[in-house]
């Protein structure tokens, strides 16, 4: 169900203790007009401007008090915010729900590239997790063990001595005691979930849209199939889509008619973008060997992954344009490597191209390279050539002495 209304009015009409979980992504107190356009040119806007901080916090407190009323006794609330007002909202949450009912400060971290501001680039948002009472529903999600985890840590039971130091447990005969079956490592409060990319099939063009993956995780840990999820600032409807995909009931509220209309459209055909990063891990994007990384670092490059023609870009521009660097691969001739670098570098409008030769062959002298390409030998190849020259010199001297 999607309701078009101010959420305070809608909440007051709802039955008490009827909701299992509430997620809200309210205005962040950015003092800005939020607006975006979708691929069809439709513009979505909402105002996040306030007369004062006090008026914003009063707005939030009134709604949080009603949310507490409609939550079931074993219910949970997740409040999404950023550094604009998170420190104030935490105090209000403590007052409304009780400090003793604070459960976690979830950090949603992601990569976003920007050079537009002086200082540290924002790379996370905060989600405050509270429950209505001490008797709350929670479903543990387990992650895989770290690659550095020792097999003994998984299979053997551990105990702590009187000093709190952990050690493996042994039976009376001196044998190691096997641990109970383990499901993995319980999920932490730092969640690395990619921000929606511009081509994601779930992207709607609505400002502040969150990925379905984020909402699914929140819903999984706090509800069961058939439970009811409420989003009083439902916006584009991501919470409702996630709830529907997971077999939960849902109630969404928003005062923006465009948002309500968009929610209805998304719920008719709910879509989720499967994140390749989450599925295969960050390491799958790394295509460079340790030797290549070391060489690129020595040259002062920013490493470029998943590109056949460019391995790195010099951190310093020349003639106000980037300089592309490629390391010759074992299966490539010098000409093949030069062609790949030339095509990729031209597409990126590079001023100069640097090709690092890693092997010599008879056809190298016939290789055609453009005037703006510098061909240099790798340190290993330079050393090999120098040693070869030294051996030749010593060989000549020995012959003359004889």
From TrEMBL:
Under Enzyme Commission nomenclature, its number is 2.1.1.-
- Species name for this entry? Enterocloster lavalensis
Decide whether keyword Transferase is in the record: yes
Q: Which Gene3D superfamilies match?
A: Vaccinia Virus protein VP39 (3.40.50.150)
**DNA methylase N-4/N-6 domain: which residues?**
19-262
Instruction: Please give an example of a GO cellular component term from this record.
Output: cytoplasm
UniProt cross-references to CDD domains, sorted A to Z: AdoMet_MTases
Biological process, per Gene Ontology: DNA restriction-modification system; methylation
- Name the UniProt record assigns to this protein: Methyltransferase
Query: Which one of the record's GO molecular function terms can you name?
Result: N-methyltransferase activity
Top-level EC class as recorded in UniProt? transferase
Instruction: Give the keywords, sorted.
Output: Methyltransferase, Restriction system, Transferase
Q: Member of which family?
A: Belongs to the N(4)/N(6)-methyltransferase family.
């Amino acid at each position: 169900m999607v309701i078009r209304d101010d959420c305070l009015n809608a909440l007051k009409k709802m039955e008490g203790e009827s909701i299992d979980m509430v997620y809200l992504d309210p205005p962040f107190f950015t003092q800005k007009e939020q607006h975006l356009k979708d691929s069809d040119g439709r513009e979505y806007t909402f105002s996040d401007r306030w007369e004062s901080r006090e008026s914003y916090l009063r707005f939030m407190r009134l709604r949080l008090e009603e949310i507490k009323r409609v939550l079931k006794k074993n219910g949970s609330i997740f409040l999404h915010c950023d550094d604009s007002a998170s420190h104030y909202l935490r105090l209000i949450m403590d007052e409304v729900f009780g400090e003793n009912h604070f459960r976690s400060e979830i950090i949603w971290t992601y990569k976003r590239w920007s050079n537009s501001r002086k200082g540290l680039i924002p790379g996370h948002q905060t989600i405050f997790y509270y429950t209505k009472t001490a008797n709350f529903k929670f479903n543990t999600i387990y992650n895989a063990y770290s690659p550095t985890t020792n097999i003994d840590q998984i299979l053997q039971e551990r105990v702590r001595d009187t000093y709190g130091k952990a050690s493996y447990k042994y039976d009376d005969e001196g044998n190691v005691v096997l641990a109970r079956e383990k499901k993995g490592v319980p999920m932490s409060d730092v969640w690395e979930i990619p921000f929606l990319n511009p081509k994601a099939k779930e992207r709607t063009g609505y400002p502040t849209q969150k990925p379905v993956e984020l909402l699914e995780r929140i819903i999984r840990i706090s509800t069961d199939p058939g439970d009811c999820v409420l989003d009083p600032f439902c916006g584009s409807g991501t919470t409702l889509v996630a709830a529907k995909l997971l077999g939960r009931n849902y109630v969404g509220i928003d005062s923006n008619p465009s948002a309500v209309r968009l929610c209805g459209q998304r719920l008719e055909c709910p879509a989720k973008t499967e994140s390749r990063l989450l599925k295969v891990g960050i390491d799958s994007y790394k295509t460079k060997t340790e030797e290549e990384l070391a060489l690129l670092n020595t040259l002062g490059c920013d490493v470029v992954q998943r590109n056949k023609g460019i391995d790195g870009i010099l951190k310093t521009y020349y003639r106000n344009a980037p300089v592309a660097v490629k390391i010759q691969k074992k299966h490539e001739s010098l000409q093949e490597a030069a062609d790949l670098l030339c095509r990729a570098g031209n597409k990126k409008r590079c001023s100069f191209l640097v090709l690092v030769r890693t092997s010599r062959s008879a056809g190298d002298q016939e290789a055609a390279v453009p005037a703006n390409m510098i061909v240099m030998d790798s340190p290993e190849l330079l050393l090999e050539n120098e040693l070869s020259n030294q051996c030749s010199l010593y060989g000549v001297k020995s012959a003359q002495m004889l």
